[in-house]
Amino acid sequence: MPPNPLLQHLGFGPNDRVVIIHVDDVGMCHASLQAFIDLWDAGTISSGAVMVPCPWFPATAAWARANPGVDLGVHATLNAEWAGYRWGPVGARDRAGGLLDDGGYFHNLETAVWANADPAAAQAEVDAQVDMALAAGIDVTHIDTHMGTITHPRFIQGYLQTLLRYRRPGLLPRLTGEQFLAYGITDDPAAAELFAGMAAGLEAAGMPLIDAVDYLPLDDPTDQIGLARRKLAALPPGITHFLMHPAIDTPELRAIAPDWPSRVANYQAFISREVRDFLRASDIHLIGYRPLREYMAAATI
Questions:
Q1: What is the DSSP letter of 77?
Q2: Closest Cα partner for 164 from 214, 116, 198, 119?
Q3: CA nearest 144: which of 237, 87, 195, 76?
Q4: Residue 161 sits in which domain range?
Q5: Which backbone phi and psi does 144 adopt, to 5 degrees?
Q6: What whole-number distance in Å separates Cα of residue 275 and Cα of residue 281?
Q7: Which partner for 98 in 116, 120, 213, 261 could form a disulfide, CB atoms 3.0-4.6 Å apart?
Q8: Quick check: is 276 in a domain?
Q9: What's 230's domain CATH number?
Q10: How many degrees, rounded to 5, is the angle at CA 102 between CA 256 and CA 58?
Q11: Element containing residue 132 per DSSP (H, E)
């Protein structure tokens, strides 16, 4: 595959390693917001995305208004995965749309959303979340996806329409069909080829795409400082979206999330002196989504 055209536009060479170090789940709870604030101030991250339907969205929006230079997108959310801590749509709550479970919240799992939600209702809810973020004063830099729910083949066209409507980049990789399968984005070869074809067409029209996705895990909190350094050292040429789910350690977080040790480990890795020094000494270039948004604004797509 030829080099990403974004690299030259942003002033990089074809072999440069560029990374968006991204925080997911901002505002899911207080612990997630405070972790994002701490890491933003530390300079070890370059972007994040807020969960608009969650209880700590208003506090996130207030902080974003007070810090207008922050690179913050919308983490398009269509499910509520925890057993005892739930949220639901910010738009229409018509049960006919299939977004609600029996309790009136989002379904727990993405598979239930895929099985029950109407694609038009899913797109309308994502649009409502973007509208709410903009109305709250957030300078939305991009629109990505919580747990990949909105990138299912049933919903991907609506997601793309939302990106085009708001002129915001999304979490869209420029991969071949084989790579879509290898990344686990889909296990359907036909869907993988569909995604690859769409990605190529979008890039040709001026949509900014990324080259790779990597992450810190949520299933093993051990040695995440070392793991972060190894993963960052191994980044390929091109633009990588490197994501994590950091949170400070609080009683609330422990009550919400069974994977809280890994979320705290994500935070501890990127607040550490070791990772800060590594990033400072490396040849990796940190960017956020703001230059991708500017690139898209200038395109004819």
A1: -
A2: 198
A3: 76
A4: 5-76+139-172+207-297
A5: -115, -160
A6: 10
A7: 116
A8: yes
A9: 3.20.20.370
A10: 45
A11: helix 119-135
The token duo for 11 is 């002033």
Q: Residue 144 falls within a domain, yes or no?
A: yes
Q: Residue 75: beta bridge partners?
A: 144
Both structure tokens of 183: 């990344």
Structural domain total, the chain: 1
First to last CA, the chain: 22
Q: Which two tokens stand for residue 75?
A: 């983490």
**Alpha-carbon distance 69 to 37, whole Å?**
13
pLDDT, tens digit only, all 301 positions of the chain: 889 999 999 999 999 999 999 999 999 999 999 999 999 999 999 999 999 999 999 999 999 999 999 999 999 999 999 999 999 999 988 899 999 999 999 999 999 999 999 999 999 999 999 999 999 999 999 999 999 999 988 999 999 999 999 999 999 999 888 988 887 777 889 888 888 888 889 998 999 999 999 999 999 999 999 999 999 999 999 999 999 999 999 999 999 999 999 999 999 999 999 999 999 999 999 999 999 999 999 887 7
Report if residue 160 sits inside a domain: yes
Per residue, the 3-state secondary structure of 169-234, as one string, reads CECCECCCHHHHHHHCCCCCHHHHHHHHHHHHHHHHHCCCCECEEEECCCCCCCCHHHHHHHHHHC
The answer to the question of residue 60 being in a domain is yes
